[in-house]
Each structure stands twice: as structure tokens, then as C-alpha cells.
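Please check both lines for our workbook:

___
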Amino acid sequence: MAMRTSRATNSRPRRNFDRRRVPNASLALETGEAVRKHKQQDEEAVVVGGGPVGLLTAMMLVQRGWKRVQVMDRLSPPPPPEQADAWGTADRSYNLGISWRGQRALKRYGALDRVIRWSAPYNGRKDWNPKGKCVEREVMERTIPTQVIQRDRLVGCILQEVEGRFKDTIDVQHGVECVAIRWLEDKQVELDIRRQGGEVETINTAFVIGADGANSVIHKAMEARAEQEKSLFRPQSFRVTRFPPAFTRVYKTVLLHFPEGWRKDFNYSARGVDDVVLEVLPTHEGLGIGVVLFKPDNDKLLNLTKETVREFFDRNFTGLSPLIEEKELESFLTKRIYNLPEFQYSGPTLHAEGSTVLLGDAIHVVKPYFGLGLNSALEDVEILDNCLEEKHNDPSKAIVAFSDARAKDSQNLVEVSRKFDGGFVRFVLPRIIDGAFHKLMPAIFTRDAIKCMQLGGMSYTQVRWRKRGEKLLQILLVLGMLRTVSFVVGAAASFAMQLVA
């Protein structure tokens, strides 16, 4: 597979967005095909990034007939999902929720059953406000319950599917980092890779899928190349729009043990008086992985000691603090502080030449607490699959179709999610207003935008335009009500004055 060729470049024009290629938003997971057979392709493919999206993409390609797919990831492989001692800790990785969007993609390629086996269902929520008041609310509107699983454990599940069913066609290599990419003549691609402790090697392939995350080497190379090629008469074909931090939060993790009588399929949440939030999601073993969110300069948390940490948790998380053992609190003091990703999206195209395409966080990054990042990324695999089907497995045509189908939707996903990233005014209040209008007139007003994107039925672009129309109608209704009230008050005052006169 390793081969050197001469370097050259060419380009493809921009295409317009087409929502018709977005997968149907129905919840009928039972219609997904576990394994599909297609005419075998003579070409090979390379997937950069061995996370959930990269591994699922490899499975999709071999089910479409690719004879060999190489997956490279710079990290070491995770423990197997059945290794309970590896997942009975909050140190390994954070929990993610897989909604109908992600479950549909996993079902389509035959990985859902194994994932559900090692997940925990999410069927409700229990919240504590800063005053310690508790409100319990079950989730009733979800036909398909969200499944919660640690991110690395999800990788382990899909990796087992790959090793068990596709070991002769998918070659997963861990500890291998892609450090550079070059586009050659005849739709060929040259990749420079480095193995752990080794020197840089060069491989050549005909089809590259960049699923290497928010700091993608592939999208950085595409952006640099597009910057060089732009001119007065040729707009920049690819760029990464990175938003500056507006509501910065960092986090630490902590493990909770649920006592008898506590629901082990709930999301528990507590807002503290010291501007901290504790979000807890369940694991397959019945434990809770908590994420403590706080500002980077929160001195009250940063200066905790063994003598003060329990009092801090009791004061801020009254209902949840008793579920945390003393050794966990002591461990919390020295745990690493993690950063949340900042919002960004790529576009207006998502491909390079006829040989390279980006998926997942390489094209859209949102905060994980919206429940949209992983699910939209897994949905990308389905959309690329649909485009390959439409273009008869021709990657050069399918990746252009993918850009048409996904670029604008990805932009709207990020921009809508970013508007909700904030405190009460930006996040809570808009959801309260939308919820009130939906309750009063459900035939006219939908739920809030985040809920609409989570529950499905519309693309992200459709959600954005629908909510814009609803906001305008809300304003008109409020203005109409104020004018009516003003008229009634004015008329009453005039009548009172006439009586006095």
C-alpha cells in the first residue's frame, strides 16, 4: 500500500445545500439493515481517527463492498466493554447519551445490540436547585430511550464488532498518528504517518475519510490549501469557523454510588450556590459518573482541601453529596481539570478533490451537554452512505453530494446550539418561553430548539427556520396582547374620568 507519487492539485466547484439526503427522521430502528452486500470495490480506503465515527465508517465501507479499509488512531485501544473494573471509575472517560439519531446509525451497521448491552437507559431526570429544592420529572415523550455509555466504552463495543465480523477487511492500527496529507494527481492521496516511537512513513490511497476530531489534521491541511488557492474571483472553498469562548466552563469527574431505592436510569443534576453544577449519568454497572462544571477561576473549588471538600459538596449538592464516598472526594482534589470543546464548524464544502471527506467533530463541534455532538456525528456516516448509494459507490461524486447535504446543516447545528450556551437568559429563559407557548398552542408552537433537534422529525436547518418563524409570531402575539391591554386600560381610565367629571 505504501507508494510515493508526484504532487499536484486541482479543485472542485462549490455546490448548493440539499436537505433531501438527510436520513429520514422516523424512529423505526427495526428497519435498519445489519449487514448489506454490494459489489466489491477494487480500491482501498483510509479512515483517520479510530473513535466511534471512524470505526462505524469503516464498517459502512466494507458493507458497501470496499475490499480493505485501514483505520488509524493515535491513541491506545480502550479496555473491552465487559471489563467491569475498568469502567467502575470516573477516571476512564465521560458518559455520552445515544439518542434515536445515533441508535439508528448503529443499528444500520449492526453495532447497536452490543452497545445497548453495555449501556444504561436514560428514562428520567431529577434536579436540585441552589436552595436544595428537588424536582423529579420522568421523560415520557421518547419512544426510544436514550442509552448512556462511557465514550471509550462505546469505542470498545464498536471495535469488538469490527474485530469479530470484519477482521479480514478492516485493519485497525492504534498508536498511529497522521501528521500530514497531500493531494496528488488522479485523485490519489499521500499521507504521512508516525507510529509510536517510530519515524514518519508515507502511504498512498485513493479515498480518505477524516474522522480525527475537532483538531483534525485533515481539516487543517484543507483549510491551509484553500487559503492559498483563494483569489478575488475564487472564494475560499473551505474554512473552519471557530467561535471565541463565551461561556467557558471546565470540569472534573467524580464517582457516585446509588443507594437502594434510587432510580438507576435517571440523570441527576444539582446547581450549587458557588456557581458550580454537578451532572450525573448512570453506567451499566449501576454507578453514577458525575461531572462537576465550574469556571476556570472558581477559587472556592480550586482551593479545596481534605478538610473542606466535604463541606463544599454538602453546601452545593445537598441531595447528591451523601452518595460520594470519602476516598472519592479526596481523589477529586487531585484529579485533572478537563476543558470542554468550543463551538466550530467547517464549510462551505466538506471535501477535497475527489478523494477526501470530513465527518463528525471535524465538521461540527458542540458542547457535549446538549446531547447532539455524538449523535449528529454518527448520523454523518449514514448520510455519506446514502450519498455513496446515490452515486453508485463513486467516492469522487459521493463526497460532493455529502457536502451539499451536510455543510449547511452542520453550520445551523452549531449556531443554534451556541445561542443556548449560557446562563439563565440564554439557556433557561428561552426554553421556558418556548415551553409555555407550546403548552398553550401545541398545534402552532414546537418545543425549544434543542429539544426539537434531540427528538428529531426535522433537519437542523429546518429547526432553525421553524424557530425563527415562531419567534416572530411570539413577538407579534405579545405586542398584540400589550396593545389590547393598553387599549382596555385606556378605555377604563377614560370612562372613570368621565364618571368623576
Q: What stands out?
A: Residues 1-21, 24-28, 30-35 have pLDDT under 50 and may be disordered. The first strand starts at residue 41 and ends at 48. The two ends are 99 Å apart (CA to CA).
